[in-house]
Amino acid sequence: MPVSKHGYHARDMSDDPQNDPAINSVEDYHQRSKHSLQKYARGPDTLDWNAQPDPFRSYAGTVRYKLPLSARQIATPYPDLFHPGRVEAAAITLESIAALFELSMGLSSWKVYGATRWALRNNPSSGNLHPTESYIVFPGDAALPAGVYHYHVYAHSLEHRCEPEDTESFKQTFADNSFLIGLSSIHWREAWKYGERAYRYCQHDVGHAIACFRYAAATLGWQVRLLDTCSDEHITGILGLYRTSDYTDVESEAPDAILQISCGNQDANTDNTKQAEVLSDMLASGHWHGCASRLSSHHFEHWNVIEEITQYCQKPVSPIENVLPESKPILSECSTQLDASFVIRKRRSAQSFDGSSIMPLFTLYRLLDCLLPRITVPPFDVLSWQPRVHLVVFIHRVDGLKPGLYALPRSEQGEILLRKNLREQFDWSRPAICPEWLPLHHLISAKSQKAARTLSCHQNIASDSALCISMLAEFENTIKDAPWRYRQLFWEAGMIGQSLYLEAEAANISGTGIGCFFDDAVHETLGINNTALQSIYSFTVGTAIRDTRLVSLPPYSHLEELRGS
Ligand SMILES: Cc1cc2nc3c(=O)[nH]c(=O)nc-3n(C[C@H](O)[C@H](O)[C@H](O)COP(=O)(O)O)c2cc1C
After folding, report:
1. DSSP 209
2. What is the rounded average pLDDT of the residues 348-361?
3. pLDDT, tens only, 509-538
4. Which long-range contacts (CB under 8 A, 24 or more apart) does 141-145 make?
5. Residue with the nearest Cα to atom 31 of ligand 1?
6. Domains of the chain
7. pLDDT (tens digit per residue) in 439-448
8. Interval between CA 420 and ligand 1 midpoint (Å)
């Protein structure tokens, strides 16, 4: 493969998809990272606790800008997030940027159990390992000079990684009242525990992080767009991830995504490739500071397949997708009176459910309605593509719905695929009471708790809840055209997960993402016997039982000591 500026491989496009090494590599990785009833995907035999990765990366040698703890002051009601125009846009200041980071990637609490203490965050993460790092690329103002900054989660501070040489030209590359957020992943953090399947979990976490930024921005009345045309090489250039001297002998970061955040309207059809290219070039001659911290003292195990799939899933520059919006009525009102900032900060993964509470029908319909893309409603307004992830819902306990399996295709194309590939015996009838625009279909009546638990690696959280969701991705069609979109399937699933987490919190119930499931057993249950659709994530929602053995401590009491104030 030809190699470009930052060591990026231009994709070797072949006319024959069967001989395309990138497509083959994605197919191989997907197959070998499946868990099955007979055996789990390859991972470490035992956990090497001495090599447990540090959850907080820092860049020594950078100037740090301390962020205020401003999230609590945001009084935006949660229901207003979903109604464009109801939230007046906040000015872009250090306080509002601080709130954006706190409500997306910031800490939510510390948990203590015996002698063990660990931090939890507003964004969830498989195994609480947090592979996602975040950056801001800022045009500059009186409080925060121009440049690239890494968000140091523990210190709630921005580390100034790069100052552009020519700040005026740098500023001019940004649209009015906007800045960029960059995301990257340290795959090692997940691989340490989960081995080969870890790459998938990192991608889920990116999806959760994108949705977290979207919801946090919505509390401030801001718009967010994923810049989907620019390449990984651009992202690497902008965030400085190619600078080997800053990552000597430490875990590398893989580029994920760039989000444009605007205080004001955004044009969804602008191609930002030029901006990304100019920024990447400009920052190459900027003044870079700092060296990344090492996360584990040693790595005895190497998961080469993760490096391989990372190479083959590198995103090239891609054309803008012109998605025709489907017309749907506005989202049904949410009944909570809570502030969005409170809902976001109280989000927790349930570790067990009560096995008895019944979910009201209107709660289910609101949960599902939120997952349909609407062009001006968070979080799916961030994406510029038609939905490629659809749902099968195992209904255990919902008032007024027969227990069993139900399908929620998230697009017309999705419904065609599901009807074609799911079990022939499924009846595809509409529930007697269901909003006309909600494409929910009854497939089969059955007591589905036991099946949900078995399919979810025998986890009780899948059966003791009110419902459990399997997310089915349009796998074959997606990777045949663009193998790197494999990652985006998981991002979309992660965004669905984040939406479910927050909606559950708003309804005073709880959710949990389920990355551990037996892939092909899910397919068999649903009658899927090819790779047109593949199960990529599961999610469970119900009434949680809190673990009273854990003590909760506030998220930022360490800051006073750290900042010496
Ligand atoms: C992609 C993903 C997969 C997850 N898979 C599971 C799972 O299989 N079982 C489980 O009990 N929790 C699972 N979780 C929940 C995480 O363990 C949880 O997010 C993490 O411990 C942090 O806790 P918090 O969500 O309360 O912040 C998953 C979370 C994510 C984001």
Report:
1. H
2. 98
3. 999 999 999 999 999 999 999 999 999 999
4. 141/92, 141/93, 143/93, 143/94, 144/65, 144/94, 144/97
5. 125
6. 58-312 (3.40.109.10), 349-542 (3.40.109.10)
7. 999 999 999 9
8. 32
